[in-house]
Amino acid sequence: MLGRIPLEAFRVFDAACRFMNFSRAGRELNITQAAVSRRIQTLEDHLGAQLFHRRGRNLTLTSQGERLFRRVRATLDYLEESLEPFSTRSREIVSISASGSVSHLWLGKRLKNFDNESPFVAVRLLTTDSPSELASEANDLVILYSTGEHPRWNLTLLMKEILIPVASPDYLARRALEAASLSVEEIAALNLIDYERFNAHWISFRQWFTSIRHPPNARPEPRLSFSTYSMAVDAAVLGKGITLGSIGLISEQLASGALVEVGTERLETGYGYYLGTPRHRSLSPAAERLHQHLLASP
């Protein structure tokens, strides 16, 4: 039976399923709405099964149609991947590694912008908090939490680490608090949100309070603690309390007003986030484009 069905019919069926509209499917395939309808009808006749429920202009898939769509979509995806090596415009692959917090808070948006500018470069992102995996030379680029020196990577500073307490305006408003006027003692008494330290050099609230110029009299205890830094930031945005913000990483939240600085104490740790290129091999043109894009990103 399959040999009697034109393969083009499956491509038309796939487009009709994705758009749930024969006219839009026809525009994508550069054929008329009537041609789409005829090909779908031919496919249904060959299979002996109704694939769509038609109610005026509204389409929905039947159970047989849903089952066929999953199989056709999987087959087309596989075929497209299999043909990539034969394409004269196949995408160059660049690999980059970064921690979970950098990937979630800073890198993701910039990689999306890069994809829009360089559609023929595919970026493979390794997100890990393991120092050995981050610094693996299997990657083309890396973003490291560092003081600026590494035996295997040439590092360029992306942003210094400057830590400040931050909270959402909603959290502060519910407590009638003025962000800029809060003392360290007052901050220590609020709902502190902390995170696990996967690196001995990371600083959480306990270390921050002991490192600033005027630490509180009593040792504060966090009310909430998360396994990742990005989860702590997300909780602060949702108004759950106050967390430490690394200014460079949360620049978007600060600019949008989702988070505001609390108090006036800032701690510059001497560390920062650095973009690394391999010391012992050259970058490909695609990797060099991504390197320059990230360095130029605000």
TrEMBL record:
GO biological process terms, alphabetically, are: DNA-templated transcription
What the entry lists under Gene3D superfamilies is as follows: Periplasmic binding protein-like II (3.40.190.10), Winged helix-like DNA-binding domain superfamily/Winged helix DNA-binding domain (1.10.10.10)
Picking any one GO molecular function of the record gives: DNA-binding transcription factor activity
- Give the top-rank taxon of the lineage listed in the UniProt record for this protein: Bacteria
Please provide an example of a Pfam family that matches this protein in its UniProt record.
HTH_1
InterPro entries with a match to the protein in the record: LysR-type_TF_proteobact-type (IPR058163), LysR_HTH_N (IPR000847), LysR_subst-bd (IPR005119), WH-like_DNA-bd_sf (IPR036388), WH_DNA-bd_sf (IPR036390)
Q: Secreted as a keyword? A: no
The UniProt record lists the HTH lysR-type domain at 5-62
The alphabetized UniProt keywords are: DNA-binding, Transcription, Transcription regulation
**Role this protein plays:** Transcriptional regulator of the ttuABCDE tartrate utilization operon.
Give the family, as the similarity comment puts it: Belongs to the LysR transcriptional regulatory family.
What is the name listed in the Swiss-Prot or TrEMBL entry for this protein? HTH-type transcriptional regulator TtuA
Which source organism does the UniProt entry give?
Rhizobium deserti
